[in-house]
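Batch 3, record 17
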Amino acid sequence: MIATAKSTLDELSTFVRETAMLESIQSLLEWDERTKMPIQAGEYRAEQITYLSGMIHQRRTDPRIGQWLDELAASPLADDPHSDIGTTVRQMRRDYDRRTRLPQSLVEALTRQSVLGQQAWVKAREENDFLAFRPHLEEMIRLKKEQAAAIGFRDQPYDALLDEYEPGESTERVAAILAALREQLSPLVAEVVATGKRAPVEILRREFPTSSQESFGRGVAARIGFSFDRGRLDVTHHPFCSGMGPHDCRITTRYDERFFPSAFFGILHEAGHGIYDQGLRSEQYGLPPGSYVSLGIHESQSRLWENFVGRNYSFWRHFFPQAQATFPSALEGVRLEEFYFAINQVQPSLIRVEADEATYNLHIIIRFELEQSLIRDDLLVADLPTAWRDKYREYLGIDACDDADGVLQDIHWSAGLFGYFPTYALGNLYAAQFYDAADRQLGGLDGLFAQGEFEPLLLWLRHNIHQQGQCYTPAELALRVSGQPLTPAALIRHLRQKLAPLYGIRCG
Amino acid sequence: MIATAKSTLDELSTFVRETAMLESIQSLLEWDERTKMPIQAGEYRAEQITYLSGMIHQRRTDPRIGQWLDELAASPLADDPHSDIGTTVRQMRRDYDRRTRLPQSLVEALTRQSVLGQQAWVKAREENDFLAFRPHLEEMIRLKKEQAAAIGFRDQPYDALLDEYEPGESTERVAAILAALREQLSPLVAEVVATGKRAPVEILRREFPTSSQESFGRGVAARIGFSFDRGRLDVTHHPFCSGMGPHDCRITTRYDERFFPSAFFGILHEAGHGIYDQGLRSEQYGLPPGSYVSLGIHESQSRLWENFVGRNYSFWRHFFPQAQATFPSALEGVRLEEFYFAINQVQPSLIRVEADEATYNLHIIIRFELEQSLIRDDLLVADLPTAWRDKYREYLGIDACDDADGVLQDIHWSAGLFGYFPTYALGNLYAAQFYDAADRQLGGLDGLFAQGEFEPLLLWLRHNIHQQGQCYTPAELALRVSGQPLTPAALIRHLRQKLAPLYGIRCG
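Prediction for the assembled complex:
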């Protein structure tokens, strides 16, 4: 019985590893398209990707997978749900069921509407014309509800959508956590604004030559643990991180010669994603124990290095002299304290991707609340722009001037990515809670950073998070690592402790 | 009958196009491996390529292809052998037969021996130890004879090997052409050497900054017709050209800051290959009418742009002022005539890849004669080093100092590439004959080049060669384009006309 189950497991694993190999090849095709491909090669590249996608879809929904999983479920091999085998069986079953429950016609309708919707969105945004985009959004919402019904859910359709990105999470729990976050964050931001104090951000808008930004960013990324023997850094308009093999993870950034933070913190952010990818167990590549567990946990790794490490005072005690030597004309005579204040400015603004560490989460909460209402039919698409404006006024205290920089600013909804936004805020909350735990367990990270010691934190993350793969759900992982369920407490504490001395607000 | 044949043709074409899509993806994997891939990703990349190769091999030998071809052969659709359909049926049959005639065990033995042989060759070359390489070469020759026997041949086993790279050619014919070439070239080189005259090559060994070499080379490549909207130029140690789609052809080069010719003529050479690739009919991509016809013809296109255009006096009348402006410290005060003499130096030397336009062919002829003898069992591997030295003394008038720079200098034999070397010399002969025809038909290329006009030649090559795909054999193509079968006459005439004024040898 065990022997048969063992050979079934081998068959399943080989099949899944081969599928992962095709996916890794697809990732290279996509990476190349975005970084290196000659302009006229686009059409054929789309054909190549479509062809591979078809093969991959066929393999992911191959009935043999269902049979193998049935056999394995009946064997004692998979009894321990957190073992590699238990994890493989559980997560493969989840993936197989989610995929095979969708009728082919719905998959095709979603793909088509995603393409049409994104095209319409680009145009609508350029022309500030929400009405032109409205029917596409309505159709997409209709399809997403159909998708949720096909997959199945516990309480409400949004559960099925959220579960795609954050396995095991429920709308109810996430809504409670993010509502608590909003209740503490919105007043915090208001307190900062009320001080009228402004960070000296003009020092970040001086001349920062691209080649120096690149060498500095590359050097710091390597120091915190991104391996360039197993990765690359290139330039793209929209930065991203893409893994394409157990030892091949590539990140990108974009450089603004007159604004230091965009490339530097962008590199730290993508390097954080890359460090997670590089920390996965390579011998389990393509199988659940060697795969990232959720978008929220992935984002926690990028945010941890970008914000908790990269905007930390001790980090800059170590790196600021090197930054001054690299950018003498911009940073000569600038004091560390000024620079530190500048990179930690808090200022409500309209655009999510340019938002600071504190206000960013309010942008997310607005989108999360609105998309829940849309899926729940509590809000009509026709009323979305007004609802958007109302929430920006209420949570961030600002008025959206137009729809282009308002409800049309993100690509996500046009592409059908409902349930995706909350993972950004969950990432920040996980990051805070993980950082807190690491700080306690490693006896104070500030002291290490000031010495340029980043390896203890890296190894802690490797052991506690990266190497766990999908053996635990995100919620279980948070509980195991930090000893408590996810709450906003660590993030709020972190922000207040940082902002109190800078802005003179209360500390707790 | 026609309707059925038409639908059979559609099935075949779709199947072959999909296979070509997988091959184009494999080309991207290989290009990336050689240009961009992080060092530690190599092992998984090998797995990806092996996996794809397996899929491709299976498709190329799929029994359905044989059935489709049988059906089509019986239909009048393919009656015209030079039509697209006739060409597709004929060339697919050739490919299918060559592949299916090889037993799987022999394919695997050849692959294995190629890997082992190359590893042994690298080590043997480093250690100047021919004896260590000898058993690998003996085994490879044994396998190549087995391969030739399995494929079948007209007169002698070498025919089957040559035919792989130069379809339709016979050993007898190529041997006659290259013997005639040697008989005229060897005395020509001896005449040059006897003058004792030396070209002022030291001006090419000054400071040529890499970034300037790159921008200059890129600019010239674009001017002669290599499209960067459909291609790229990158850096690798071993330069190459690789197509990976109907609008995606990528070339590479390497820069030597202290030697101008290596990157510049390297770029022209690879751009020449690339221009052929970019000139193939894109709507026939992956099918025989849209594929290159032979290695010899491919090489003719690289050599034509590298040597016949790139080392032409009128070409430099146009580009030399720009070269001087780009490399002021190296070329200021240098006269065009000196520069032209320097890039056209003729000087017997030991290393094939560094040889000049004239002596290069003697290096090839030596290898061609030796490999024929090896396959024919007229020469034992044990006697190869001595035979090599004898021929270098006889044809080039120089003594090979050791085996590392002698019989061990090329990778080809270790990898099983027998029949490949002669295509280099055939390429030079085709180039001369094509250039001659274009010069006559376009009313003098020198006048055009001096004006910076390269498009007439480009369009002539597009029409007469690139767009013909595999509709004619290389020999038929030469006859159609130049009005006569391939002979050494055009190349010898070209060399004598160029070298007579430079070295003071007789002109014809």
